[in-house]
Every structure is written in C-alpha cells, then in structure tokens.
Amino acid sequence: MDSKDLAQYIEATDRISQPWLLIQLRLQKLKERRTTMSPEAYTKAIAELYEDLMNLGQWWVGREAEVFGTQDHFNDRI
Asked: Which residue, 46, 24, 49, 48, is CA-closest to 34?
C-alpha cells in the first residue's frame, strides 16, 4: 500500500485522529522519498519518527475497545 492508498484509507475510515496511523503514513511517505534523500537526511527523519512514536506513550491504556475496536480479554485469562 502506498502513501496515497494509506491516506485514502485513513480518511475513508475517519481515523485521522489516530496518531499511530499518521506516523505510519509519515513512515510510508519517507520510504517513498528515500532514494531522493541523503543517508544523513533519511537517518535524521527516521530518528524523528521514532521519537514521535515513543512520545505517544501508552495513551490507549484503558481505552483499548474504543481505540482499537476490540475488547481487552487479558484479565479473563489470568
């Protein structure tokens, strides 16, 4: 899936507010531009994406069903 398809999916499913998908879109766009970038610029951009991903933290904890559309069955298995 290229960045255009991914962007259309995000828009069509009204998931623009889901930050991990936006990071995935940024990563796909970066991969598509890689051949036009210097290795240093690409490495810097990857580092920035990684930092943004890590800054998301665990904001979804306690909201799994709402955010991911699933229910947390972890406690049922303990």
From this structure: 46
pLDDT in tens, 21-78: 999 999 999 999 999 999 999 999 999 999 998 898 887 788 888 777 765 555 555 5
Are the C-beta atoms of 26 and 49 separated by less than 8 Å?
yes
CA distance 50 to 47: 5
Residue spans of the domains in the chain: they are 3-58
How many C-beta neighbours within 10 Å does residue 52 have? 13
Q: Kindly report the backbone phi and psi dihedral angles of residue 17, in degrees, each rounded to the nearest multiple of 5, phi listed first.
A: -90, 5
**Amino acid identity at 55:** N
